[in-house]
Design a protein that fits this description.
359 residues; 10 helices
Length: 359
């Protein structure tokens, strides 16, 4: 049975609030699960809607400047630490471990309900909406969830106005052999029978070293929640990810406008170097470019030159460009094109008729 606490001071960010969803027994057999909704303290002068931000793997919400940006654009800001992640992880739980990404639908639905009530989000065409933002693994979780809402929960889906994806994980990085049917079959088989078995491959600390203030970066965050070298990857969890990839690549229909931001290049290394600061050191950006069209709905896809894996944790001038792209999309990308604009676009896409001279 789900229980929800009242708002309390956040345990990580001064001035922020948190509300815990006690979700009960874990379907994956570990300790009872919970999720944590985080609320920014600032409110815009005129509220256009709200943002719900979803973190990635080996991650949690700590990025106050991101919240401040969306508030400056007129949106109340909320983020969620999913079950077994960040603030929500409990003793007896494997970090981030789920065997089905749809399990997150429970806490995401509760978050939508709380936000809708607090902010006045409505189902009408002109009512304020929730913009869902998501990073990396969250960028896979979010569109799958929104697609399910469209099919299974249209009332909640009507409260979603758009989707902003920050370097979404849309395919498995690495050598092509890692994405082969044979390897995928092994992942699925072991994931079912021995889900908590750890993959025999360590994650590189290069990305963590590039962003944390104790190493080469400027960002302060809790290394217990977001260790430099990442959490171990289990077969049960990666099976859930590969199943999610397959569903997305088969084609979704999220039925809301989407903005996809990513770096213009990837650079993988075992150790940090200055090149790590100006590339995605975690995922393959070509996969994002290839599969973004599978989201459905109106899509705007923008490569940000020299961006890091989290484009909003990039070097200052780079992240400012990312913020500028979001600001422009919020101003124009959420509105359907007018009939005049659509006709002009169609005319521009139609090649002129050839004139054949008389013989």
């Amino acid at each position: 049975m789900t229980e929800t606490t009242e708002w309390q001071p956040d345990t990580e960010l001064a001035g922020y609030s948190q509300r815990v969803f006690e979700l009960g027994a874990d379907p994956d057999g570990e300790a009872p699960v919970s999720a944590t909704l985080i609320r920014a303290p600032k409110s815009p002068r005129t509220t256009k809607g709200a943002v719900l931000y979803i973190h990635g793997f080996t991650d949690y919400f700590f990025h106050e400047p991101l919240a401040d940006f969306f508030v400056s654009q007129g949106y109340r800001f909320y983020a969620i630490d999913l079950r077994k992640c960040g603030r929500s992880r409990r003793d007896g739980q494997t970090a981030h471990y789920v065997t089905d990404l749809s399990l997150y639908d429970v806490e995401l639905g509760l978050a939508v309900d709380v936000i809708a009530e607090e902010v006045g989000i409505g189902a009408g065409a002109d009512d304020p909406k929730i913009i869902v933002g998501a990073h990396s693994t969250g960028g896979l979780i979010a569109p799958l969830w929104i697609d399910r809402l469209r099919r299974l929960d249209p009332t909640r889906h009507s409260l979603i106005g758009g989707l902003v994806l920050n370097s979404p994980w849309l395919d498995l990085q690495g050598r092509a052999a890692m994405r082969s049917p044979a390897v995928t079959a092994v992942i699925r088989s072991v994931g079912i029978t021995r889900g908590l078995t750890v993959l025999p491959q360590d994650l590189s600390p290069a990305y963590g070293d590039s962003i944390h203030e104790s190493r080469h970066g400027e960002w302060k965050y809790n290394l217990d929640f977001k260790p430099l070298g990442g959490f171990p990857v289990t077969f049960g969890w990666i099976r859930a990810i590969r199943n999610g990839h397959a569903l997305l690549q088969a084609g979704l229909d999220i039925a809301v406008p989407a903005l996809v931001l990513r770096s213009d290049k990837s650079y993988f290394a075992k150790q940090y170097s200055s090149r790590t600061d100006r590339a995605d050191a975690v995922l393959d950006v070509s996969h994002m470019a290839r599969w973004a069209g599978c989201l459905g709905g109106r899509l705007t896809s923008v490569p940000i030159p020299d961006a890091r894996h989290d484009v909003f944790l990039s070097l200052p001038s780079v992240r400012e460009q990312a913020y500028a792209e979001v600001e422009a999309w919020l101003a124009t990308g959420l509105r359907p094109p007018t009939a005049k604009a659509a006709a002009k676009k169609a005319a521009a896409a139609t090649p002129p008729k050839k004139t054949v001279a008389p013989t």
